[in-house]
Amino acid sequence: MKISKKIFGVLSSGKKAYLYILKAGDMSLSVTNFGAHWVSLFAPSRNGRKDDILLGYSTLDGYTRNKPYLGATIGRFGNRIGDGRFSLDGTEYRLYKNDGPHSLHGGRRGFDKLLWKAESYEERGGVFVRFELVSPDGDEGYPGTLKAAVSYGLTKSNEIIADYQAAVDAPCPVNLTNHAYFNLAGEGAGDILFHRARLYASSYAAVDESLIPTGALTPVQDTPFDFRTAKPISRDLAAAGGGYDHCFVVDGDSGTLRPCAEVSDPRSGRIMRVFTTQPGLQFYTGNFLDGVTGKAGSVYGKHAGFCLETQHFPDSPNRKEFPPAIFGPDRDYHEKALFSFDWQ
Ligand code: BGC
Known about the structure:
By secondary structure, the chain is an all-beta fold. It has a single domain, classed as Distorted Sandwich (Beta-galactosidase, Chain A, domain 5). It contains 1 helix and 29 strands. The strands form 8 sheets. A 9-stranded antiparallel β-sheet has the order 11-12-13-14-29-23-22-17-20, with no helix packed on it. A 5-stranded antiparallel β-sheet has the order 1-2-3-4-5. The longest helix is centred in the N-terminal third of the chain and has 5 residues, at 60-64. Beta-D-glucopyranose binds at residues 68-69, 79, 104-105, 211, 245, 282, 284, 288, 309.
């Protein structure tokens, strides 16, 4: 196992951002403290060929202008808050609307655009980086001073462990996640529609045309959203409206780390299994990627990658029927996710 650190670039503020390269098992993961982004993930194929399976950019500059949130850590609230507002104890809070009428992924300057404090360490058969930041009261319209601590690590058994914690001194919606886009055939190697996906979800949150949940949790049975048995992502894509961008309700008990997804690439033999403590999983097939210039000249078009964002349900602060995503002085936020990799 090995941890190395180097300067990734200098921000317009003059501050330096660092790249941490974690090596363990057969893989290597690099992350930066700018936006706590996952930058690259090298994994072997069944023939021993190592490819970078994360969409991203070669330089820090790309991450400062990262419209699709490639690899970003998202906060304070992942996905959309309808109409950019919510009420708590009779007070209405207004957020920045960066997605038509809605607020998306924390607003104008979410956690993906902040420079985090970072510290690397070795522990429990893995190499980790712990990122911390303080989001002041009123940041992006959210109440309370929030302290976030997110750690990402790579283990000797080829797993990424993600741990998300936050403490906030006033009631506030919190929904942290990572927005990695994977292509198990290698970033830049075409689209992911031939990957096979299995999702451990018997229902999903139905959405309106602006992707805000209607409140209905619809059974997947007899719909294009049924991934309970593995199938190619392409199989029912057209019937699903040309792409998936939906929050699936993960089977089993939230709060316990349980399987939520398994995706495999038949060509390279790479398999990724995802586990979460969260109630939901946003399965997003890169529908809005529109020719983004990525690493070393790669161009990411529609479906060039997929995301599996472990999270609370979108727009939870406005949906009393959803699992509560309000945290505060009496309720700290703590969630975990695990991504395990194999090649056969
Ligand atoms: C959302 C998509 C959005 C993408 C990039 C995903 O989490 O569900 O609708 O386009 O993030 O912002």
